[in-house]
Fold these 2 entries.
Entry 1:
Amino acid sequence: MPASPSALPVWHELATHRAELAATSMSELFDRDPRRGTELSAEHDGVVLDYSKNVITDRTLSLLMRLARDRGVAAGIDAMFGGARINTTENRAVLHTVLRTPAEESVMLDGVDVVRSVHEVLERMSDLADAIRSGRWRGATGRPVRTVVNIGIGGSDLGPGMAYHALREFAHDAVEARFVSNVDGHDIDRVLGDLDPETTVFIVSSKTFTTVETLTNARTARRWLVDRLGDEAVGKHFVAVSTNADEVAAFGIDPANMFEFWNWVGGRYSLPSAIGLSLMIVIGPEQFRELLAGAHSIDRHFRTAPLEQNLPVLLGMLGIWHRNFCGAQAFAVLPYDQRLALLPAYLQQLDMESNGKSVDRHGRPIGVDTAPILWGAPGTNGQHAFFQMLHQGTTPVPSDFIGVLEPTHTHRVHHDLLMANLFAQTRALAFGDLDSSGERPPHRSFPGDRPSNTILLPRLTPYTLGQLLALYEHKVFVQGWIWGVNSFDQWGVELGKNLATGIYDDLESDRAPALDSSTNALMMRYRRLRRAGTADRDTATTDEMI
Ligand code: F6P
């Protein structure tokens, strides 16, 4: 396999084809084929993808599918599902799909049936969730649990936080979840503020159990609890989710209260593992299993559907078209559903941490652009904020519009308006002001030809949310495979972490910092103010915090 996909002949054919298409407009394409809207759409298990509003033709699609074939996407899918160590820099298999594999199946890794391990942990999670939901689990003073607080960051926070927000309608009446992630003390203050320690359980979620933000928040939470209920209360009020039993024990959490996952699950792929414990507690084990079933439905589809009808492959290859042949720098995710408000942030980690790389799996420069800048916000709010740039800015931004056909509220007018806006936006982006009568002044003219996909879900349930997440996970996989990157490591975050540790030590000491003149001056300014203003605030020592 060549280092760069650009070495493949089909890459050049795509580039030439793009140049030929440059003068073709979206309206021309729709005029040419009145059935385009239905022809360029695909459906699997209730999930609809309309990709007709892209400047593409049958030839574009066939070249993109040839690229997928020539780059070995099918073999890549088999390698991932089969447990090959495709996370090359960490020498790990990538088997998050096993987290949603039914118990009757088996996947062997190093002589162990990992499906079995997954279901054993799921059973333990279900027992805890049932105990909390039924009031059987009692805190140190004998009261039932009312709040679970997930302490984690990145993949150990974004997934459960996003899913909780999306699935609030499925939540237990009396048990709520809260999430604390930032090392910024305002975050934990916000979460602890009105909490009753007697009815709270903390879930310390960290794959590595070495992440400074999470451990700092966990220590602060433990101090808060111990100050109010004493040391003995910790066992009834703290559980851990991790791959690192030693560090969990060192922190002081009984390994009996630890829920395991495995190093073949990347942090940003870990919501369906025990990292989803807070979600399972509030929506219940049955609904959590629905989320797994939805994800599994897309896994099967991804593994078996022909490339041309394969939703994640289509999404991935359209993204390649925009990024590598049309020069798109960014990509917007626009859920027309307030319950999916946290989806863009979740997908930001999934996409940008997975594919924001410059070298391939063998360390060679890739030579073509990789992950675009991903951002987004729910419609219609985004329309009144950044959509101006989507419609008339100088940088076209391909986008995914996500709609849910059937709401759970009864405000029909609201939902019709919401969906009308979704349909209107994709139309305005595609066709501009084509069908308005008369000439418009330049500042009121809309160029159109701005690409978008529309994804429709029948309802928003744990099942369809599971489908949506798997859809994007596999889209990211397809793109990573085309670019040749290792989508499952994240070495890019290490440098900043290491530097922060050194700077933290300098801030705590009296030494003059010996870094660059900008950082030195900023640190000295902070140190002066810190001495003057916060001397009496902090109670923890450095050793306690790190
Ligand atoms: O710093 C990045 C990262 O490693 C993410 O990949 C991960 O999701 C997050 O930190 C949290 O890591 P952990 O679960 O080990 O605390």
Note: The longest helix spans residues 462-483.
Entry 2:
Amino acid sequence: MSKKIIDDTSKFLSYVLRHEPQAIGLELDSEGWGDVDALISGAAKSGRQLSRELLERVIEGNDKKRFALSADGQRIRAVQGHSNKAVHLQLEARQPPAILYHGTATRFMDSINEKGLIPGSRHHVHLSREIDTARTVGQRYGQVVILQIDAQAMQTQGFRFYQAENGVWLTDQVPVDFIRAL
Ligand code: HQG
């Protein structure tokens, strides 16, 4: 199985499991789970051949562990990054590391300095413990800027933090006072 097929399938799964399940007639429940057989048959109708073996390879080999199978193997979901309105992950609030990082592009900074970090089309603002991860994320959008987030102060003031199954930290918003550009 080629790396290209695995990478293409990962992108496809991100699209349908986070954003547009309806594109292949798939239903997701509020925890983001979709039926594996329905995913395979829906994808086939739109000309994409999936198999359980391919899905398992993508899930296990994925660099960021973006997807998970249910214990019985019948359902699949994305563990974070959703924009789909039907999905509302019930994540428990957790104590974050004192400092978290967010990578973004310099061209967004005027707006960020005015409004803070907001989720945009996704359900949460995404933060990472590692500065290198933040750099990689920010580079997707242009000239990168790393923002240091005072998660400890935020938590003290009542903001909640959640951690997705793959370790990504999530919060609803980050007001300007807690952001420092490095
Ligand atoms: C920016 C990837 C203007 C924000 C990554 C970001 C992550 C603002 C963009 C996950 C703003 C949203 C999410 C404001 C925030 N004004 N721009 N007030 N507040 N922004 O893709 O964090 O590889 O929705 O800085 O690893 O870049 O797909 O969020 O640049 O975990 O698994 O608005 O996506 O994961 O972009 O990335 P995104 P993100 P995957």
Note: The first helix runs from residue 3 to 19.
